[in-house]
Amino acid sequence: MKIFDSFKAMLQVKKPTLDQMEASVASAEQAVASLRSQMEELEGRRRDLLIASDTERARHKQAISTTADQLADAELYLATLRERLALVQQETAEAERAARYAAALSARADAGKRLAKIYPQLVSQFVDLMEEMARADAAVDAANVDLPKGRTPLARTEAAMLYPRREREVLGERIERLWIADGMSRPLEDQRAVRQTGTDIGLVKLDDPCDNPLWNTRPLVLARLRSFRRIEYLPAEAVTQMPAGIAGNVQLPAMFEGSACWGYYLSGGRIVDPQEVLAEVAAVRRLPRARSVSTEDHIAAVVEFELIDDPAEQSAA
Questions:
Q1: What DSSP designation does 290 have?
Q2: What's phi and psi for 2, nearest 5 deg?
């Protein structure tokens, strides 16, 4: 069979690729399956040939013998090719392991050079910063013990970074009479939608009753005219907008292995698994970067309505 020539040629290749061996094994499997099918068909015709001529019977027996011989060769080729495939798979896996090992050595060398160059400076800067913060916090604690008149206690350095740059600045305030539906805490957006039915009482249809499920069963909702305090203000802002996802203090490892603090430190906890470190780093990088808020930043004014609950003040309004 011609296909046997390809099997023989493949076995003579000194360094076949994994793809070549897999293709040859697949071809050998197909050849074995085809010859087995032919053998089954030939064996099934034996009974029919009991009454055939001697010539036909001899021809049939010769076909069985030839097919059986080809099947035996094909099965032997298949077994040999499978053994060779196993060796190639082992060699390929070993080559991949060697490549990963070499890549790891290279990556470690590059990281080590950067560590030796940058890390001592980074640790020095971090230690200096911690010392400066500690001295500042000690001064804050001392000042808080005996405060000047009219002054409030000071927050420590880290907490002060999250404190407002300025208090809320009220731009204007006035009293307004507005319609409010029963069950709501804020005035109706469309004041003209209310149909007044009496003194300070009316009915309104709400298209989106998500705030109160009872409105689903009522086509019209009772509305009342109430007094609200309308406040327009500039909201307070932080000095620095820090990434909200970083919790706890970031600690840096020592420079030598075996130290009690050797390893990666993130989010206040010790992490020694590199995959955990990569996941933590990726999470931090997805957060908004810290940025200083300048006094020139545009701050949009906010308008809020406060319902006047005091009956006397409500009547006076």
A1: P
A2: -65, -35
